[in-house]
Amino acid sequence: MMETVHPPAADETGFAGDYAAALAAHAAQGDETGLTAAFQLARAGMALGVSLTEICEIHQGAAAAIAAPETAQCSEEFLLEALTVYDMALRGHLDTIRQLRQEVEERQRIEEDLRLATFALSRQRDNLETEVEKRTQQVVAMLDDLHRTNKELMQNNQEQAEFAYAVSHDLKSPTNTVRMLLNALVEDYGAGMPEGARELVAMQSATVERMLRLIDDLLSYSNTVDAELVLAPVPLDRLLASVAADLFAEIEEGGAEVVLGALPEVRGDETQLRILFQNLVANAIKFRDPGRPQKVEISCADPAADPAVITVRDRGIGIPPGQGERIFGLFQRLHAHDDYPGSGLGLAICKRIATKHDGAIGVEPGEGEGTVFRVTLPRHAEGPEP
Ligand code: ADP
Q1: This model's pTM is above 0.85
Q2: Which of 198, 305, 345, 370 would be 366's cystine partner, CB 3.0–4.6 Å?
Q3: Could you tell me if 330 and 345 are in contact, meaning their C-beta atoms sit under 8 angstroms apart?
Q4: Peptide bond preceding 341 in cis form (omega within 30 of 0)
Q5: Does 10 have pLDDT greater than 70?
Q6: Ligand 1: distance of its center to the CA of 370 in Å?
Q7: Ligand 1, residues 294, 347, 371: which to mutate, most atoms within 8 A of Cβ?
Q8: Strand order in the sheet with 295-299
């Protein structure tokens, strides 16, 4: 239970006696000293909890005790002095209350602002969440679309490759038979043939050889598309040194120089990466400019970077502007077969291999001369999804 605290009674504090003494002194002397004493007494009494009613009672008692004619005047001054102190306290108290009320109003206003801001924020958050959810659903739908298109594309590629394989496989044996028959014709009847007929047969043999090479390249293309990637770490410096060794005869014959820079290790299918780089280096030697010695540089500007970017740069005949994309298509060639033999499938194979490794291949003109092929390979390829 809470205990009520009462201010001390006037007698207990000695206030009544002191007040009577002060009033008597003022009445007797009539100067300021008594008044000042009363003022201080009233303040001290207030501090001790003496109420206004008690002061009035004490005052009447003290005034009656003096009982002199001049008492009335003195006692009035005395009482007014005491009441002034109360009045001041009351005003101070009212000011404090007014100030407190203003502070409370200000606080309430701030609280209201805060409540409104919190509400607006929570609505914004709700909107944001809805928007994020909507966008996520859109992205998921787009990803699904992409996966489906990818799957269809891969299926398409697969079907094309199977078709190419079937056609080239079926074409190979009759073409081989034609070659055999032409050889037999030359062997058995060549000596008795007129010069014109022999030339015609020789031209047919050359055409058949070209057809066979085309068929072999087509088979190699469909094999590349079909083949599953067998991924392992492939140190490209070792691989390219071995490619250069395999092409030794062509390099010697073309009077070319092959320079290998520092090359990184990537994760990939060694057999397929060998086909890719072999095609690029062989092309660089084949498409050399007869007017200057060929130099082929294979390098990587930043061997630590991922993906690795390998450049194959030559000083050959170059590629006309605007043809850079086209040459990666099937059977696309920029030069006459008689000048530069080939099937137009090598770069298409390179592109398939780079894409299967999640990489890319591009071409750009060299600075002032020749061509630069740029092969991008992730260092940790995982291959396309099945
Ligand atoms: P192929 O070499 O059998 O003709 P590719 O697919 O390898 O077929 O190349 C396609 C065409 O791109 C070539 O016929 C040639 O016109 C051009 N090309 C390829 N590599 C080079 C190169 N290093 N310099 C100039 N042209 C090139």
Answers
A1: no
A2: 370
A3: yes
A4: no
A5: no
A6: 12
A7: 347
A8: 257-260, 295-299, 308-314, 371-377, 360-365
